[in-house]
Amino acid sequence: MVATCLHLVGFVSSFVGWIGVIMATSTNDWVVTCGYTITTCRKMDELGSKGLWADCVMATGLYHCKPLVDIIILPGYVQACRALMIAASVVGLPAVFLLLTVLPCIRMGHEPGAAKYRRSQLGGILLILLALCGIVATIWFPVCAHRETTIVSFGYSLYTGWIGSTLCLFGGCVIVCCSGDAQSFGENRFYYASGSSSPTHAKSAHV
To answer: What family does this chain come from, according to its entry (predicted)?
Structure first.
């Protein structure tokens, strides 16, 4: 029972974290930048927003974004962070699918517990890989962006990426380390089979 609860906690936290990683990947408010000193930018009310896909200018009554479409002239860290976040978003899909198929409420025929255990471990490892990609990208990007311009603050996209990656790392570690062994995945699985000598259905344990 404890292993099942831990598995559910790991799955829910990982799923929420994966959604957060996707949101961080698709939005551009990673860092708020300033082309001058912070005091000057505040007086002029002119700030910039930098993300993976566009550079934006935020001023009074103006919000204009310039898409970063020219891959040749893009800084290397932007391209690397793009690749890491896209990889994290894509890896999350099979990870969530694998973990969904091993939930206690889902049974695929007379599948042994060892098969579910292997899928659970693979899903947990993919989640940890997802989290590492997200953590590296969300730390690398602001550090390199600060070398190019002055960062006033972090944007909501970066916070979303941090929280999502942390949840995926937590969920993956819980699933890999704390959700039980192969035997626990085969316990408490019941099915109904027709009895040869009785017209009623008899409940029998399937381990």
So the answer is: Belongs to the claudin family.
